[in-house]
Specification:
By secondary structure, this protein is mainly α.
Length: 66
């Protein structure tokens, strides 16, 4: 899947995740974004939303590890 088209969204999610020090806060942010992406245009399919959320989570975990 090509994530380049969603890079702006992924960066916004990661930016919000950076502001959350605890896992519970990060999960809340991810759930909010998942809901937002389901409702707003361009009405992404579930597998596309999953891919975006997975990539944001991967990036924040990589940043925590470094």
């Amino acid at each position: 899947m090509n994530l380049q088209g969603w890079e702006t969204i992924i960066q916004q999610i990661v930016g919000e995740l950076n502001g959350e020090p605890k896992a519970s806060g990060r999960n809340r942010v991810l759930m909010k974004w998942r809901s937002k992406l389901e409702k707003e245009p361009p009405h992404l399919q579930v597998h596309q939303i999953d891919e975006i959320i997975r990539e944001a989570r991967r990036r924040i975990e990589a940043a925590d590890g470094s």
